[in-house]
Structures are given as C-alpha cells and as structure tokens.
Amino acid sequence: MQADQIIRNLDKLKADRTELNAVLEQCAAFACPEKMGMYLDHADSGGDDRPRYIIIDEISEANSILSRGLFSNLCPPSLQWFSFSSNKKEYKESEAVKKFFSEAGVSLYNLLMKSSFTMEINEAFEDFGWAGTTNLYVERDPKRTFRFVNLHIGEYYVEENHYKQVDTVYREFKLTARQALQRFGNPGDKLPEKVLKDARDPDAAKSGRKYTFIHLVTPNLDRTMDADGKYHPGNSNKAFKSVYVCREEKFTIRESGYDRNPYTVSRFEKKSQSIYGFSPAMRVLRTAKIENKVWASLLKAADKAIDPPVMLDAAAYGRGISPQFFYNPKAVNLYDSTATGGGGKPEFQPVPANLPVGLEMFDRLDQHINRAYYTDMFQMIQQLNQDSGRQRTAYEIMNLVSEKNSMIIPVVGRILDEMFSPLLIKCFFLALEAGELGKLPDELIHADELDLEVSYNSPLALAAKRAELNGFFESLDMLTPLANIKPEVLDYINFDKVTKKVLNNTGAHPDFIRSNAEVKKLREERAAQEQQAQEQLMMTELAKSQDLTRKIEPDSAVSAIGGLLGG
User: Fold this and answer.
1) What is the DSSP string of 58-72?
2) d(Cα 292, Cα 387) in Å, to the nearest integer?
3) What is the pTM of this model?
4) Is 157 in a helix, a strand, or coil?
5) What is the rounded distance in angstroms from the CA atom of residue 208 to the CA atom of residue 205?
6) Higher pLDDT, 306 or 185
7) In the predicted structure, residue 434 carries a pLDDT above the cut 60
8) C-alpha Rg value of the chain to the nearest Å
C-alpha cells in the first residue's frame, strides 16, 4: 500500500469520527480532564485542567473508582489471576503439556510484574470510563521482555472485520527529526532526505522540528503458501502487514509484518452500529451537565445565604436616589424608609433560593452517575475489606457481585474476551520466542499451532463465570422434587461435565484437577474393590444361611464355593 493511500484512508477515518470526537472531548472534560484537549480548543479553561464552566468532580472521582475497582478485582498484583492450557483435545491429558503450561503461567505472571504492565493497564481502565475504548500496544523490550504503551484514543483510528473484531489500526504520532532518526534506525528503514537533514543539523530548532508519522497494522491479504499448505517465511508474509509512513513527505519508511497484531483494542460496551466503545461518561453526559448546573445554582444560593446583600436607606442620602434591589452576593440594595410613613428600619428578606430541593436533586443525579460507574459495588467491596481487616476472598466477592450488581457481568466478559485473552496470548508467544518460558514438551514441538486457552481466577472473572452456573443450579433446584419421586430423571444430567465446569469456574488451579485418564483409573480401581467386597459379603451371607452341622451336598452352592476356595 502506497504512502499517499494510507494518508487518504486515515483522513477518511478521521472525518467519519468528527462527531464522536466532540463527544469524547466533553466526556474527558468531566471524567478525565487530564486527557482532554486532543480535539477541540479549550483556551477558555484559564490554565486549569478543564473548562471553567465545569465545577463538579463527582464524575472524575467515579471514573477513578471504576478504574481502581477493575484493576484490583480483575488483575490484582497479589494474585496470579490467569493460567494457560491447550485447547486441543489430544494435549489436554498430557502431564508434560499440563506441567509446561502451569510453569509458563507462573513465569509470564512474574514477567508482567517486572514490566510496565501494571501502570499501563490501570491507565487503560481509566480510558474505559470516559472514552469507552482502549488500545494497549505491546512489543519486545530487551531488558524487561515486554514494553506496554496505553494509547490515547485521539492517537489512533480503527476498522473492524466481518466478525466485528478490530483488526486494522491506524496510529498517528509526532516525533522530532532527531527522535525519528533514533526510532527508525533498523536495517532497511528509510527516512526522507528532509527529515535526515534536519535530524543531523546542529541547530536545535531544526533537529527539534516535529514530523507526523503513521503506523498502519492490518491483516495481510497477500500471504503466499507452499505446496504443503505452509506459509512462506519472511516479514512480508506474516499474518499482519505493518507500514510506517511520514505524512509531510508522503514517504514510506518501513514495511514489515507481525505474527499477531501488537495493538489490542477493546471496548467497555458496544452498540451494534459503532466501531468504538460506549463509556459510562457517554451514558451520563446529559446528567453531568444538569448536575453541573444544579451545583452552580446551589453554590450561588449558599453564597447569598452566607453573605446576604447589604441594605441602605436611600432617604439618608437625599432626594434623587431611587430604591434598587439586587439578589447577587455582596450586592448593595437601596430602600426608601420614608415611602411607607418613614422611620422604619430595614428588614432583611429570606434569600430567594430553595437549598433542600436543590440538594435532593443533586443527590438523585449523583446516584444515576454512581450506577453507571458501578461505584456502589466497588466502594462496598473496599468497605468490606476495611471492616474485616483482610482482603475479601474471590468467593465472597462472587456472591456480592451476583447479589448486588450483576449488570457488570457482561462488561467483565467483554474485557476478558477483547482485552486480556489476546493480550496474554501475544505476551505468551513473545516470552516463548525470547526463551523465557523454557523448552516446549515433545508433544508441542512439532505442533502447527499451540491453540492456547486462557483461564481467569480473579474475583470479577470468577463472578462472570459463576453466572453460567446459576441457571443450571436453579434448574437442579426445580428438578429435586421430581427426582425424589423418580430418581431416573437425573440421568439426563452429565455430572462429570458439571463438576469440571464448577471446578473451572470457581478458580480451581489446573494442577489440582485430575485428568480424565486418572479419573478413569481411579473409578476402575474403586469398582474392582467394590466388586470384591460384594463377593465377600455374598459368601458370608451364604455361609450364614447354611446348617454347618449338615453334610455338604455334592451339588450345593456351598460345595461350589468350597471348590473355588480350594477346600
């Protein structure tokens, strides 16, 4: 793809997002002011971090509670909150494969904790609250294996495939000429002559001149295969095509490829016709504007109540001065004491404001915002932790989420599916290529694809899984009376599969679960022991039923048993 075509495509995506950008700017002003200013001029802010007309912090606080709550209950640093396994049936029973994936999960968790993951994922959760869309970029770091970068939504534009999954990312960013020379110094990179000249100029004004660069990552539709159905090697034949261009010079700097898209784009919620996510801030934007206006009126009323207008007698200043009345704080009101017969002292009238009604209205608006941000649930979890003096267990939080705020379950499911699963799989292969996960077991060395499956055991992830089981146990409760009458109805239930689902969905570590082969062997041994015990019992009962004083008949059962025992 030519540089000018990439630039035109990006400009088209920008134009299509004009209206959304305006909404995002408003949401950022209320919920995450440090991220506003990417789209619109906000010079009226007077140097503050948000426009002067915004005087409330409730939404930015709710956004902060949401991000901290998601972080501490989805990927807490104190817990290895994920594990790996093979999704292929032929590898699930292999002890060597299970051991490899178990150890790989521990190694990858330790690598993540040493990287910038914790910092960047927390910022990504903040973006969920106001923008509804996050984009985490991950690449190899020679020192710490991984380098994570959370991108501002004003920096990238995306496209979906036919499954409504984001597979194409256009990222636009600026670098000085000197930075560009440092960034694009790999073999095969080519910078425009003008950029190179500026970068090497000793004049800081020229070497510091900024240029705009675009990075496109998109599925490679031109991949070629050999006769055996395997893709030809080489960067240009990888699953994703990668192109860097310079906008000002319309120049292609680098063309390469990736096995997996380094950009992980995920959405908090999603509407069917929109590519980008739908955030809590978008849901309550009108409420936020009303709440801001109500709070402004309350502050004005409170100011008048605390510092009421001064009243002066116009008659004391001679004729020609007419009475005037103002309601704003610090106003001076003139009255004429002679107009009503004279001599009367001024009476201060109540401030024309209804503070109780305003406060009640503000409280209702605030409740709506807190519901959108799940503030009550996360505050309740935090309060329970403080009251008990310990971190609540995953099971306790599962019950709390199930009972108090099941509305967050679809959100959690989307985050796990769109953000964490692809991100962790990419990190797995980056670590594997870097030699950080040890040697593959023999069964996997010649496998075409590992086909990884990621499991989660953080509190919110387990709460989302538990929702799958609730329907089954409700059905089982309804079947219990019928099973008491006719036990055969339970034959319709595959209790082995239910048991596996319960173990997986309640966070049991894979190392603690027996394989199908182990369970089969255990059951065969148990069945043999039960059969032997039953035979011994039968012989004992049969012996009791016989008259031991009688002569044993040649063809009797006792005679047969005696023959078996060698008697």
Assistant:
1) HHHHHHHHHHHHHHH
2) 34
3) 0.79
4) strand
5) 5
6) 185
7) yes
8) 36
